[in-house]
Amino acid sequence: MAKVKLYDTTLRDGAQAEGVSYSVMDKVRIAEELDKNGIHFIEGGWPGSNPKDREFFEKISRSHLKFSRIAAFSMTRRPNTPCAQDSNLAALLNSKAQVITIVGKTWDFHVREVLKTTLEENLAMISETIDFLVKKGFPVFYDAEHFFDAYNANKDYALKTLIAAQEAGCAAICLCDTNGGTLTSSISATVKEVKSRIKAELGIHCHNDAGVAIANSLAAVEAGAVIVQGTINGYGERCGNADLIPIIANLKTKLKIDCVSDEQLKQLTHLSHFVSEISNIRPKNEQPFVGDSAFAHKGGMHINAIMKNPLTYEHLDPHLVGNHRRILVSELGGKTGILLRAKDLNYDLSKTDPQTKKILELVQALEHKGFQFEAAEASFEVLMQRSLKKFKNFFELEGFKVVIEKGKGRKITSEAVIKLKVKGVKEHTAAEGDGPVNALDNALRKALKEFYPTLAKMHLSDFKVRVLDEKVGTAARVRVLIQSQDEKDIWNTIGVHENIIEASWQALVDSVEYKLLKDRK
């Protein structure tokens, strides 16, 4: 099978996702990371549409990319407008891009209803635009918008648009499922038919409105496409674009196509998380190949089998894509999950050890109350150390008070007062915060910082509350999950109680104690 080239459009299509807004430097950082990870083409944006994209092309032209080529995107010339007078095409010429991608109409319905022009003029727009750019020395990719809908509606005209692009000298034609509603069998059949009629290299560009963009992209490759367009993590308008992360993994590991090197494949998890961080979107735990849950095992039968041979419940070695196996501790995991976690912590337990049964029973009892240690592994480590009598208290709470105050015309304020005994010394301190939990966190670390200076290097990075018994109303138990991090690690802790402050306190204490345990190792 021919080598497949990867074409990333995160910086344009991905930026159209709801809630995503990249700065110029965000786009530069993502482009540089894509280059490191072996992406052949990076679509930087539409230089004729906004100042931000124009600035991006200027800045990225000064970056020393080693692998990727930068593509600029625009549409064909406007109806009845000479190419030399079209402002969008002028912006392309000034963009310093190495490749130009032109989108054109292939669906006669769109030509009449959107462009409001004739079918003949649309063919001229495609042909003249590509010819104009090719003569300026640019490789041109032609994006055949709505191609699969167009092909079903008017096959002859849809093919005429591709032939017009091919005869004008385009380097490749990408068939677009723009509305994202075409099923995989139709994609495969259509690509095969088009390949028998078109000599230019074919690419595929799928949207995910029917939930099959990844499958459609892979099917197109198997049918003869050699360029795959998509976005990192599937970001894009409406339901998103085809997710390049699992596409790359499947091309490399399942179809045995060397679209990236083995080392670049190992960076796939990092790339996914890097782009999600820049995009300010939390990574999907369930994302194939790279999600935290992609190789997580919870059921006792699964865990037992995995330990005998990972192939029993894993379709590939997680290290190939830079991920890792996780054995979750829960009431479903049985003793095997406890033993594996204990082994990770360098504790020598066995199935017949009474301590193992004791810890399992404790986990089951706590999860019955609403605790969930699969999402709070740091709390489980603290729990295990206490259970095995390995834990030495870093401090003792004597009491705390949280005051929330709002006066007329004033903003609400939160203050926490806390009394602790640390290494035999009594500490009594107070701190304000953006809310009661933040105030408690500030007060706790303020009281401890002289004794444990490394606490200054940690902070809370996420806080979640879930009501466990909605029918009980305001008396319901709540589960608080806190994510903390320092300069090296991220960890999660949990608390459950009818009082949200007490639940938060439990999670806060576990977070601080885990940090101190970690520093002591």
Averaged pLDDT, please?
Answer: 90
CATH class of the largest domain: Alpha Beta
User: How far apart lie the N and C ends?
Assistant: 51 Å
Find the CATH topology of the largest domain: TIM Barrel
Low-confidence stretches: none
Task: Give the full name of the CATH homologous superfamily of the largest domain.
Answer: Aldolase class I
The value of Rg in angstroms is 28 Å
Structural class: alpha/beta
CATH architecture of the largest domain: Alpha-Beta Barrel
Strand fraction band? 15-25%
Helix content: 25-40%
Count of domains: 3
Characterize the largest beta sheet: strand count, sense, and whether it forms a barrel. 8 strands, parallel, barrel
The DSSP helix count reads 18
Q: Give the number of DSSP strands.
A: 16
Q: How would the global form be characterised?
A: elongated
Helices and strands, with pairings:
Elements: E1 5-8, H1 24-36, E2 41-45, H2 51-60, E3 69-75, H3 87-93, E4 99-105, H4 108-115, H5 119-135, E5 140-145, H6 147-153, H7 155-167, E6 172-177, H8 184-195, E7 201-206, H9 213-222, E8 227-230, H10 244-253, H11 262-266, H12 268-279, E9 296-297, H13 300-308, E10 326-327, H14 334-344, H15 354-369, H16 377-387, E11 396-405, E12 413-422, E13 425-433, H17 436-448, E14 459-467, E15 478-485, E16 490-497, H18 500-520
Parallel strand pairs: 1-2, 1-8, 2-3, 3-4, 4-5, 5-6, 6-7, 7-8, 9-10
Antiparallel strand pairs: 11-12, 12-13, 14-15, 15-16
Helix pairs in contact: 1-2, 1-12, 5-7, 6-7, 8-9, 9-10, 14-15, 16-18, 17-18
